[in-house]
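Predict the assembly for these two chains.
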Amino acid sequence: MKRKVLMTLLAAISIFTLAACGSGGEESSSAETADGKIEIEFWHCMGSSNGELIQELTDAFNESQDKIHVTAVHQGSYTEASTKMQAALSGGEAPVVAQMEIGSLGVFADSGQLVDLQKYVDAEDFDLDDFMPGLLDASYYDGELIALPHSRSLPVLYYNKNLFEQAGIENPPETWDELEADAEALTGDGVYGYSCPLDQWYYSSLMMNAGGTIYNEDETGIGFNNESGTAPLYLWKDMIAAGTMNVPSGQDYNSSEACRNTFAAGTAAMIMQSSAQLKGLEETCNFEVGVAAIPMLTDRAYPAGGSNLMMFSGHSEEEEAAGWEFIKFMTNTENAITWANGTGYLPVRQSCTEQDTYKQMVEEDPNLQIITDNVQYCAEATFIPEYAETKDIIANEIQKCILEDNYSPEEAVQSMADRVAELFQ
Amino acid sequence: MKKKERSASGKRDRLLGIVTASPAAILLCIFTVYPVIYLIYRSLFSGSLISAEKEFVGIDNYREIFLDETFHKVLVNTIIYTVLFVGLTMVLAIIIAVWLNSSHQKKLNNMVEACIFTPHVISMVSVSIVFLWLMEPDTGFFNMVLTSLGLDKFAFLSSPSTAMLSLVLVMVWKSVGYYVLLVMAALQTVPASIYEAAELDNASKSRTFFKITLPMISPTILFTCVVASIASFRIFDAVNVMTQGGPVDSTNTLVYYIYAYAFRYGNPGVACAAGVVLLVLVCVMTYVQFGVSRNKVHYQ
């Protein structure tokens, strides 16, 4: 009897643990090659054409000098890469440089895994002021410069110019009232006026345009436990009830993709998406795509998104110096323009806008200028280690409020406040 | 003299036993016993995967998950999923297996078998992506069919009330073929003489099924139930690709919760505590199901 119990237990344990195995080891991240070059690894999160471009830029760096060789490795989406990075760090196998989503900054910085880049800036008199101010904010943690802006974006409103013309609307909506009115005029015959993922980022941009901030000033909880937090939920609820807003299915990146698909199919006239999707949308849509700022209620402010280049500690001084050279190369004016032009991410430096190549780009695609004009409104760059959890809590409460009955916006925002406050304890 | 000989050979046998069992035992220790011990040990500490210092917090992590409403919901979701999945899969598997076993059209049988087994060998991620597309509420194929039949659209994965059911349907579609094979193998071991005797007694078909077929294949059914329950307690990949636990945690399951805490929220202590809960639940489930087998299952 006893043995049977034991066998059962063992059987259960072994079946259970079989699944726990998996995830192979990464190769050693850095070493010196035979020809005396310093070999460093660079992790990025760019797939398809963006991935090819980042590889081209890395190759260009390798050819531009003969002391350092960088190997670029694609590590999947932002979430996947962040997961792999945590595993690599705990195993002492982290790369020198990596492109990481700005939201994961807190997790890495808080545990002291990022190199303070200020020493290089001071030593070389490196001009930080050239970076767009709203974007550089997300490079600091506890006063330390631990990243430089790279693939940055902001939420914008895309609109279908053909449908606008048919409905007799000249300009994209600037206020929430206009958004509701335009959406109503555009809705009909299988077309929704507006579509937006029920996601934290888009909610936050509306909330910030209503005067809120993600965290409060003393960083003890959320900064929108008032009308600024409930107003976006009422807006969405009203528009869904009026039949003018479509809710894309899926979660997170899935829902954004679904949202873009409805827009490209012509079944949603306006969508809120990342500015980085501009090139992709212009290519897929067989109508003229317009870009506008997210409509505002009282203020104009956006949560900037995207990723930064970060340097991870635990490497020799030479390797870190090599990493700095690479980061500088990737973020210099010329390459920032190449990157922005090829991907739709923001030009991260002010000097970019003065270059002829950039001027030519804007002339070819005036939408780019509209996006660049809005960079100045990027704000809010607090990244506590619990940022990922905060995001999930907010997304969850938004969906509960919109998708379930009998859960008012006030209750949802109060619940967000309570749950996020717990994280700060 | 004789005694000595026996003890010497006994010693040799024992040594041989230890030597031959040791490779398996060592592997078991490294890959099973050690991780389980470490899991329990780690569940008593705070700190992220990458923080240098880990603080001993005792049972705080357990207190946190037991007070966490999300965790309660996750547990309930996991149990609902397991019951729905195992129930549906087993009923379908038995029906299909009995039908295939009694039909004598070999070609048709082979084709049906191949068709229902194929999903089992496709990668879960690909299946998830395809179904994500099929179940799209506005433009998806399923709703296109429903609307063309004059029926209402079904929300599938986009509504908290239907997401779990949709997930179960995908998983049943994917795995039923495998269980059909297991049940069919069991059906073929039932001696034909019993059926002949039943036929002579003029027993009805349903009576034959419930009094002969089902009891005779009950050991296999129990085994498949155990395996299926344990597998469904660990569902992760479909959740991760299709729903990320949403909408509103309606498809958040135990392993996805563990993953979120370990890698996304940087709190492996809580993840380990939830892992220990999973371990205990799986052990209890296995034990109960084998307990049932001693009393209720017919062995030949």
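Chain B has one domain: 64-296. The mean pLDDT of chain B is 86.
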